[in-house]
Amino acid sequence: MAGAKPTIYKWVLHPGGSGVLRSVGILPDGTLHNPNGYPEDLVRAAVEAANERRRKKRSEAAAKAAATRAARRERKVAEVVAKLKAGGHLSPGDYCEICKKHLDDPESVERGIGSDCWQHLLSLLAEAAGTLDPGPGA
Question: Which 8-state DSSP code applies to residue 18?
Fold first, then answer.
């Protein structure tokens, strides 16, 4: 655990639900930060429960952010597909029209869309045209 950040809370819920424990935590070496002299097992249980709540909250936030990014990407791809179907064209650029990543590949710069987004766009265009091969076993 060398270099690990200490987990110190200003307050955490008491594991029994009867109040809070103030200024407690677990240091990187596994020792307790417990200046108020609470029982050791109570402090460990409270800090571990608080860590689990924090981990769960961050995990849920990350999942929500991933879903938002995916929806945003799908919406942008759909806009580009609609533009192309309407006879529009894409302008060359240093950044991908869909994901905004920097483009280095000359072919990607010329079309204004990166290779990953381009493959996704082509599959959606093929689906829209009804020419997508369903693959083996379909």
Answer: S
pLDDT band at 137 (very low <50, low <70, confident <90, very high): very low
Q: Where are the domains of the chain?
A: 7-62, 67-129
How does 25-48 read in b/e, with b if 16+ C-beta sit within 10 Å?
bbeeeeeeebeeebeeeebbbbbe
Chain centroid offset of residue 78 CA: 22
User: Which residues are CB-contacts of 118 (< 8 A; sequence separation ≥ 6)?
Assistant: 108, 111
H or E segment to which residue 23 belongs: strand 20-26
Residue 96 to residue 106: CA distance in whole angstroms: 12
**Is the pTM higher than 0.70?**
no
